[in-house]
């Protein structure tokens, strides 16, 4: 691309730490790119993507590219901040205060920040002290909803619409797709600095998209909250849902029974029955993984590592399902016994349900 003075940069910062549930961030970036490529104003924008974003990568990217729009995609942890990565690929939270302070240094170049992560309203409010347009989420947002909202937003941007209109079209796109999360995104907005605010209400958000409450009646509100907090004080971090919320959990110590006391066939059956309660697009893959585990167990001399690998694969798919947190308590006793039978190499499976040795 030629260095056109009028080309605006969209900086996409993606992070999916290894100890969080897998998100379809590559699909989100692909849909954003496709939306702008097919737009009539496609030559007005260039997209720069940074994957596996670490805290130290953030200010460097802002300095290098001076983006007009900054788009975060990944996990959020509410008031604790955004989930970026450390040098080992695991979660490192970027605090709300630090994030706001950073964007205060780029308010002359950045016009809009889109936080496509769960519970990012606190960050949106803080960043809005310095940036005119900030989109956040007032609750957990599912992976599909996050992708569809971004698609609608950038379709409108490429068509030359204002940020307020892009936001409204993104929300409407969710409604058209019959995804009941159109009130999850919220926009903090004002005209360019030194001009009047777009809204005059105390919340300073687009009407009907208030951070404190939404405009739907109680009968129509989305009541499903797919975040989860297990235990009290946080001593570890894991994700147990199929949405974009980082669930802080306490790893509870557990004692394992003697391996010879475990009826492994019964435990595998119980695990599969609990997971079968979930609505997962990967149901067939989960069933195949359990079938592989059962086939190995039925051999005269089963290879426990092969059983462990099959279960690891099954839970990798199951964790992505919405509502996974609702079956955690059912899984705990059976996964504890199964892990005891598998041996020390597979104690890591306990962390899936917030347990540890």
Strand content: 15-25%
Please give the largest β-sheet: 8 strands, mixed
- How far apart the termini lie comes to 54 Å
- Mean pLDDT value: 83
Instruction: Give the proportion of residues in helices.
Output: 25-40%
User: How many domain units?
Assistant: 2
Region (Disordered): 194-235
Biased composition (Polar residues): 222-235
Protein name: CHAT domain-containing protein
Biased composition (Basic and acidic residues): 210-221
Structure description:
It is a single chain. By secondary structure, the chain is of the alpha/beta class. It has 2 domains: 8-189, 3-Layer(aba) Sandwich (Rossmann fold); 251-356. Helix content is 36%, strand content 15%. Strands 1, 2, 3, 4, 5, 6, 7 and 8 form an 8-stranded mixed β-sheet that branches. Strands 9-10 form a two-stranded antiparallel sheet. Strand 6, helix 4 (121-127) and strand 7 (133-137) form a beta-alpha-beta unit. The longest helix has 16 residues, at 143-158. It is elongated, with a radius of gyration of 22 Å. Residues 222-235 have a biased composition (Polar residues). It comes from Brasilonema sennae CENA114. InterPro entries: CHAT_dom. Residues 12-164 form the CHAT domain.
């Amino acid at each position: 691309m030629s260095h056109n003075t009028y080309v605006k940069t969209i900086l996409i910062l993606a992070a999916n730490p290894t100890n969080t549930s897998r998100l379809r961030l590559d699909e989100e970036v692909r849909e954003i790119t496709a939306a702008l490529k097919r737009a009539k104003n496609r030559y007005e924008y260039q997209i720069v993507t940074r994957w596996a974003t670490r805290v130290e990568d953030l200010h460097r990217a802002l300095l290098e590219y001076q983006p007009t729009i900054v788009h975060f995609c990944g996990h959020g942890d509410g008031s604790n901040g955004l989930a970026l990565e450390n040098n080992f690929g695991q979660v490192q939270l970027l605090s709300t205060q630090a994030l706001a302070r950073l964007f205060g240094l780029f308010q002359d170049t950045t016009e809009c920040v889109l936080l496509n992560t769960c519970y990012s309203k606190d960050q949106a409010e803080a960043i809005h002290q310095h940036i005119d347009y900030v989109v956040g989420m007032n609750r957990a947002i599912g992976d599909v909803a996050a992708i569809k909202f971004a698609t609608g937003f950038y379709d409108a941007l490429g068509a030359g619409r204002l940020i307020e209109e892009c936001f409204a079209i993104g929300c409407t796109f969710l409604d058209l797709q019959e995804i009941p999360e159109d009130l999850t995104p919220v926009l903090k907005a004002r005209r360019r600095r030194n001009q009047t605010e777009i809204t005059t209400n105390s919340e300073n958000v687009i009407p009907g998209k208030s951070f404190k409450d939404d405009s739907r009646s109680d009968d129509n509100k989305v009541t499903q909250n797919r975040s989860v907090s297990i235990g009290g004080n946080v001593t570890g971090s894991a994700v147990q849902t199929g949405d974009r919320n980082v669930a802080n959990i306490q790893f509870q110590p557990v004692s394992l029974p003697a391996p010879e006391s475990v009826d492994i066939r019964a435990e595998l059956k119980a695990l599969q029955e609990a997971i079968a309660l979930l609505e997962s697009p990967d149901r067939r893959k989960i069933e195949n993984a359990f079938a592989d585990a059962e086939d190995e167990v039925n051999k005269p001399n089963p290879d426990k590592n092969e059983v462990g690998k099959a279960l690891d694969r099954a839970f990798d798919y199951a964790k992505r399902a919405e509502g996974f947190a609702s079956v955690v308590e059912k899984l705990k006793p059976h996964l504890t016994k199964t892990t005891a039978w598998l041996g020390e190499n597979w104690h890591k499976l306990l962390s899936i349900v917030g347990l540890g040795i």
